[in-house]
């Protein structure tokens, strides 16, 4: 089963990390990801730019509205995601716990099973 | 990152929102600052044990408000403050507050807080110092070191600035859309001043260098609460593009490396990507302002893989647009650099000669003039211009850069012309 593991955090704090702080966190995150990558179960890992860089197209009365950013009221925002191949949800939970332990910025990791419509090749 | 470092960062991020809200509540800057300070102390005691609350800002406002009220009550010998343990569980008063305190509530509070730091009676350096002290919470010591003055002198300066602001009265009514736009523009200018105060420092370890990061943080905050302001997108994009070059701007010896000579592989691509995304978004609004145009110019440089790939024609068009939106001799001076690339040094020189009176005391004017004269082979006049530039240099790096140009000119003059 493919799982998307979505990372939520307070972006104002996370995007205020200095480069050194960021590098320190990334190093720990890579350490958690490495065994999974070696076993061939780790798909793309994505970092989303801040919500201020986002544009939303929402259904409007006549034609769709184009809105700057997601709703500004969000406390935590979706900042990044992993795609992983696990046998069970249990494994996904364990992996997410590891990520959570080394990432001081995260408030939660959401685990969402998904299936692939198109594998795509934009990133490769 | 340790827990404490993390909490420090969370407190710093929450500061403008929380302080802005407390200022509206207490209507007094000193009381609001004391209340926020107290809330931070309690956070440092409580959070490591219980974990940070879901909405740290709402927590800080709630605790700060209570402690501020308590301080006022203590002065009149009344009852004590409720323990913060009673408010830090998930299902408590704080979450109710959090629901009500969304970004649209914070919007005017933060804008007001920043705006009072830009009081027109205050000189720019004091505006910057006040904003860094109050909004960003930097210590007086840090600010003093950056401005190269003693701590007591800076303390006095900030106290006086605060007194002046308090005397002028803080506007607490909800601003009209027009007032809001005006405040936003004044605040944007101040944020960019803070950025430049840091960016002009050659030494990345210099105290002031951190100001650039602080300015970016404030810029992000402003865009977060005003997500549809194209000029804020432009300002942030501009700061990102400039700071992306920080690793390439100075040689190991601390000398200025010109844009065309910089090692472009050192430019920070993450910043560039975010800037381009923001600029793209901004331009959809079709309200080009000075920050968007400057960012668009910087973006063209960032898109060029090598200096010789730079699209000078496009940059020239953008500078002309900038001259229309925000006419200033400095903009024309910058366009002269483009003109020299496109049409040669003589045309550029013709463009800047009439600016002599307005820019006579400006380092870059004489630096560029010297450079153009040098290209035209008028070494004597070039030398004079370079000498004036050195006299006006604001930093050792600037002076060294000009001296380097003089040396090169002399070397070239010493070479036999035959080959």
Automatic annotation (TrEMBL), chain A:
The family database entries (Gene3D superfamilies) matched by this protein are listed as: Dimeric alpha+beta barrel
Query: Highest taxon of the source?
Result: Bacteria
- Alphabetized InterPro entries for the sequence: Dimeric_a/b-barrel, YCII
- Residue limits of the YCII-related domain? 1-114
Question: Pfam families under this entry?
Answer: YCII (PF03795)
Which positions are tagged coiled coil?
A: none
Q: Which SUPFAM superfamilies match?
A: Dimeric alpha+beta barrel
> Which PANTHER family does the record match to this protein?
BLL7171 PROTEIN, BLL7171 PROTEIN-RELATED
According to its UniProt record, which protein family does this protein belong to?
Answer: Belongs to the YciI family.
Q: What is this protein called?
A: YciI family protein
Classification lineage? Bacteria, Pseudomonadati, Pseudomonadota, Alphaproteobacteria, Hyphomicrobiales
UniProtKB/TrEMBL annotation, chain B:
Under the heading InterPro entries, the entry gives: DUF6596, RNA_pol_sigma-70_dom, RNA_pol_sigma70_r2, RNA_pol_sigma70_r4_t2, RNA_pol_sigma_r2, RNA_pol_sigma_r3/r4-like, TPR-like_helical_dom_sf, WH-like_DNA-bd_sf
Q: Report domain RNA polymerase sigma-70 region positions.
A: 15-76
For the DUF6596 domain, which residue ranges apply? 183-282
Q: Which domain of life is it from?
A: Bacteria
Which one of the record's GO molecular function terms can you name? sigma factor activity
Q: Which residues form the RNA polymerase sigma factor 70 region 4 type domain?
A: 114-164
Q: Do you know which SUPFAM superfamilies this protein is assigned to? A: Sigma2 domain of RNA polymerase sigma factors (SSF88946), Sigma3 and sigma4 domains of RNA polymerase sigma factors (SSF88659), TPR-like (SSF48452)
Any single Pfam family the record assigns to this protein? DUF6596
Q: Which GO terms describe its biological process?
A: DNA-templated transcription initiation
Protein name stated in the entry: RNA polymerase sigma factor
What broad taxonomic lineage does this protein's source fall under? Answer: Bacteria, Pseudomonadati, Pseudomonadota, Alphaproteobacteria, Hyphomicrobiales
């Amino acid at each position: 089963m493919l799982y998307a593991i979505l990372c939520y955090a307070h972006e104002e704090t996370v995007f205020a990390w200095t480069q050194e702080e960021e590098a320190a966190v990334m190093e720990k995150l890579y350490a958690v990801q490495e065994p999974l990558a070696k076993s061939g179960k780790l798909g793309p890992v994505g970092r989303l730019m801040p919500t201020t860089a986002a544009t939303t197209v929402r259904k409007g009365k006549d034609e769709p509205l184009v809105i700057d950013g997601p709703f500004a009221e969000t406390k935590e925002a979706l900042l990044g995601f992993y795609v992983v191949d696990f046998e069970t949800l249990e494994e996904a939970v364990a992996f997410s716990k590891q990520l959570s332990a080394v990432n001081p910025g995260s408030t939660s990791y959401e685990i969402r099973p998904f299936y692939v419509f198109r594998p795509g090749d934009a990133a490769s | 990152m340790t827990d404490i470092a993390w909490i420090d960062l969370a407190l710093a991020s929450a500061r403008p929102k929380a302080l802005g809200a407390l200022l509206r509540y207490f209507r007094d800057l000193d009381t609001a600052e004391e209340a926020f300070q107290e809330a931070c102390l309690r956070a440092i005691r409580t959070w490591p044990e219980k974990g940070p609350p879901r909405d740290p800002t709402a927590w800080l406002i709630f605790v700060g408000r209570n402690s501020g009220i308590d301080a006022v009550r203590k002065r009149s010998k009344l009852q004590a403050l409720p323990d913060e343990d009673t408010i830090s569980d998930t299902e408590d008063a704080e979450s109710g507050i959090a629901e009500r305190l969304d970004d649209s509530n914070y919007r005017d509070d933060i804008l007001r807080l920043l705006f009072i730091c830009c009081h027109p009676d205050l000189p720019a350096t004091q505006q910057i110092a006040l904003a860094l002290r109050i909004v960003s919470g930097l210590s007086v010591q840090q600010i003093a070191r950056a401005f190269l003055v003693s701590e007591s002198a800076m303390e006095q300066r900030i106290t006086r600035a605060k007194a002046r602001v308090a005397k002028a009265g803080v506007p607490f009514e909800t601003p009209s859309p027009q007032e809001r736009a005006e405040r936003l523009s004044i605040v944007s200018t101040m944020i960019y001043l803070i950025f430049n105060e840091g960016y002009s420092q050659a030494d990345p370890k210099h105290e002031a260098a951190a100001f650039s990061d602080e300015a970016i943080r404030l810029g992000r905050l402003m865009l977060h609460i005003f997500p549809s302001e194209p000029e804020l997108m432009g300002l942030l994009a501009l700061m990102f593009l400039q700071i992306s070059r920080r690793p390439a701007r100075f040689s190991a010896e601390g000398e200025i490396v010109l844009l065309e000579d910089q090692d472009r592989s050192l430019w920070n691509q993450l910043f560039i990507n975010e800037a381009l995304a923001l600029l793209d978004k901004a331009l959809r609004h079709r309200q080009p302002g000075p920050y968007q145009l400057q960012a668009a110019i910087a973006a063209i440089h960032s898109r060029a893989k090598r200096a010789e790939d730079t699209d000078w024609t496009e940059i020239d068009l953008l500078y002309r647009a900038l001259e229309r939106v925000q006419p200033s001799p400095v903009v024309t001076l910058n366009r002269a650099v483009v003109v020299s690339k496109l049409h040669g040094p003589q045309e550029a020189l013709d463009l800047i000669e009439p600016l002599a009176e307005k820019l006579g005391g400006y380092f870059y004017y004489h630096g560029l003039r010297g450079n153009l004269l040098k290209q035209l082979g008028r070494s004597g006049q070039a030398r004079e211009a370079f000498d004036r530039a050195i006299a006006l240099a604001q930093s050792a790096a600037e002076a060294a850069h000009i001296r380097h140009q003089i040396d090169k000119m002399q070397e070239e003059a010493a070479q036999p012309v035959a080959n």
